[in-house]
Amino acid sequence: MAAGLVLLLLVGNAFEKLITWPIQMTIGIAALWSVATAVMYAFQCPPSQEVGATGQVTCLPSTVLAQARIALSAWTIVVGWGYGVS
Predict the structure, then answer these.
(1) Residue 53, domain extent
(2) What is the dihedral of CA 86, 27, 77, 44, to 10 degrees?
(3) Are 30 and 76 in contact (CB under 8 A)?
(4) For the segment 7-62, what is each residue's pLDDT rounded down to a tens digit?
(5) How many domains does the chain have?
(6) Could you tell me if 59 and 6 are in contact, meaning their C-beta atoms sit under 8 angstroms apart?
(7) CA distance 75 to 20
(8) For residues 13-28, b (16+ Cβ closer than 10 Å) or e, as one string?
(9) CA neighbor of 7 nearest in space, from 18, 22, 23
């Protein structure tokens, strides 16, 4: 995302404005994905009061959390490569 922000700062004339919307979209997608992953990590298990009342713990499988993080990393790599090409 940092590379995208730097590219947005470098855009000057009207022709280069055509590439601002893809950069803004990729930054937006990465930001939303990061927030969704953070929420998923924060609420992966029920609150401790509920666990005490039921005696059972049901959390998200670690594979789901790992796959979400790997997908975000892959997106960041692809977008960073795309920024480098442009």
Answers:
(1) 2-85
(2) -170
(3) yes
(4) 777 776 656 667 778 888 888 888 898 898 888 888 887 766 555 666 667 778 88
(5) 1
(6) no
(7) 18
(8) eeeeeeeeeebeebbe
(9) 23
